[in-house]
Amino acid sequence: MDEYTPLEDFVGLELPVDQANTTGRDQLGEPEQIPELSDVNCPDDLRRQIETLMDRYPDKDSREGHRSASIPALWAVQRQYGWCTPEGIRQAAAVMKVTPAYLESVASFYDLLRLEPSGKSQVLVCTNISCWMRGGDELLDAFCEASGADRGEAGHGGSLSADGEVMVSGFECLGACDLAPMVSVNERYFGPLEPADAKTVIDQLRDGADVLPGKSLAKRPLTGGEDVPADDRTDALKGPNQ
Ligand code: FES
Fold it and tell me: Is 0.90 topped by the overall pTM?
């Protein structure tokens, strides 16, 4: 019978480092204390957004109720500043009456909440099974080459382009396997893509142009032809995945 191998033997293997970790991150103030709203200079629009989000949850006057809005509140912080900055986290914590440490711990759990600068644009390249079988890895290679992002980092948490403007990241299934191989660009879905599309997308992002209008999920012809009335989910901005 094989000898029992203690778990410690697996620790210390040369596993890739997730660049989204929080090592070396500078804390502001005392992360275990709830900051005063008057001390954090929270922009009015961000405060209102977070208060509106908190109102959507039951028990909004309890600590648990406040915590329920953590993920959308962190998303609001990320939209405000481009990533979950220490300042933004303190501002959200003051509005929600939770500790910055709690919000940071939540943010650190989700790949889409960034605790480091992530550029003006985010490109998520799906490399899960359906996209991988149709060239997802090659598509990620092409996005890295076109943007100057590091391929190794892009496959393990994300890498900024050489000019710091675009975050390129390999990603698990984005739930649009029928578009394989597909990418999400600034929360909009595009596919199926060819490796040659990568340079076009990067150039369009840098120029502020409309990204691949012909390959956008939102602008895809509807099944059944033009006579079929549009499903309003495809032409109304009801969610990010269009
Ligand atoms: S495998 Fe790529 S969207 Fe599902």
Answer: no
Among the atoms of ligand 1, which is closest to the Cα of residue 129?
Answer: 1
CA distance 222 to 231: 9
Taking the C-alpha atoms of residue 169 and residue 190, their distance in angstroms, rounded to an integer, is 15
Could you read off the pLDDT of 18-52 as tens digits, one per residue?
A: 444 444 556 667 777 899 999 999 999 999 999 99
Q: Which residues contact 113 (CB under 8 A, 6 or more apart)?
A: 71, 74, 75, 78, 84, 106, 107
Q: What is the mean pLDDT of residues 98-104?
A: 93
- Amino acid letter for position 69: A
Backbone angles phi, psi at 140, to 5 degrees: -65, -40
Residue 89 CA to ligand 1 centre (angstroms): 31
Domains of the chain: residue spans and CATH: 37-107 (1.10.10), 121-220 (3.40.30.10)
| CA atoms of 211 and 59, how far apart (whole Å) | 42
Task: Quote the ligand 1 centre to 185 CA distance (angstroms).
Answer: 14
The pair phi, psi for residue 193, each rounded to 5°, is: -115, 155
- The answer to whether residues 141 and 127 touch, using CB atoms and an 8 Å cutoff, is no
Provide CB contacts within 8 A for 146, sequence distance 6+: 198, 199, 201, 202, 203
What torsion do the CA atoms of 179, 180, 183, 184 make, to the nearest 10 degrees?
40
Ligand 1 pocket, 84 CB below 6 A? no
DSSP 8-state symbol, 165? S
- The answer, yes or no, to whether any atom of ligand 1 lies below 6 A from the CB of 216, is no
